[in-house]
Amino acid sequence: xxxxxxxxxxxxxxxxxxxxxxxxxxxxxxxxxxxxxxxxxxxxxxxxxxxxxxxxxxxxxxxxxxxxxxxxxxxxxxxxxxxxxxxxxxxxxxxxxxxxxxxxxxxxxxxxxxxxxxxxxxxxxxxxxxxxxxxxxxxxxxxxxxxxxxxxxxxxxxxxxxxxxxxxxxxxxxxxxxxxxxx
Length: 183
What we know:
Blueprint: H1 10-42, H2 47-67, H3 70-78, H4 85-120, H5 132-166
Helix pairs in contact: 1-2, 1-4, 1-5, 2-4, 3-4, 4-5
């Protein structure tokens, strides 16, 4: 019986490395863009808020990529599709995972910080406090659109970089051909 585990299958190990590269590259890039968008959209740009948002977003993106079953869900839902529909639908699914979690956490954090700042600066209670529930739908929608467009543009570029880095010949399908790199 043939053992196809990652340890004995160099193609599976190579594709795992490609996936790891993609998770880090896309996670960090989209996190930085969404963090910048969120802080700018708040109308109260501050460098500390931007840094906090970027760090939290990057940590969340990497955790989502490594611990949530994004790829299996995406693969299962697109298994009977052909390109380019498969690529477009896969991006919709991926962005649902990432945008919902990252935007919810960042929006909640930023509004909580704004409310706290209003309280410690003795802003009168007659001044309305920001509402998380009012801000979330707009944040989700704008972040989703931005993330989807960024993903459509950057995923093929990062995938090409990963394939080149790990010696994968693009378009070789399930029986991909991994080039041996001289050590």
